[in-house]
Amino acid sequence: MKFKIFTPKEYNTPKFRFINYNRETNKKHIFKLKESIQKIGQQKHVDVYEKDNLYYVYDGQHRFKAIQELGINMLVGIADDEKGIDILHEINNTQKK
Fold first, then answer.
1. Which of helix, strand or coil describes residue 64?
2. DSSP characters over 30-59
3. Can you give the pTM of this predicted structure?
4. Cβ neighbours around 27 below 10 Å, total
5. Is 23 strand, coil or helix?
6. Of 63, 72, 79, 85, which has the maximum CB count within 10 A?
7. Is residue 4 a contact partner of residue 81, using CB atoms and an 8 Å limit?
């Protein structure tokens, strides 16, 4: 995995996409994350994989939305391949909501 910081101009484009099986985002959770990020900064990167010059968010959609609403730079972890995404899909869909 490699890491990159994206500016709002870079991540507010159609190049960043959510995966169809991402959980629905929760506005309350996004609000709490925004408060936390404003206090202590982004503590965990947003996980994406890159394919055909597009970035697919596979973990961290709430962080993505919170940072997007704050309009600040975002730390992104870019997976080298799609391995592990199925595991995260299963985890995301079995967590308590």
1. helix
2. HHHHHHHHHHH---SPEEEEEETTEEEEEE
3. 0.84
4. 9
5. coil
6. 63
7. no
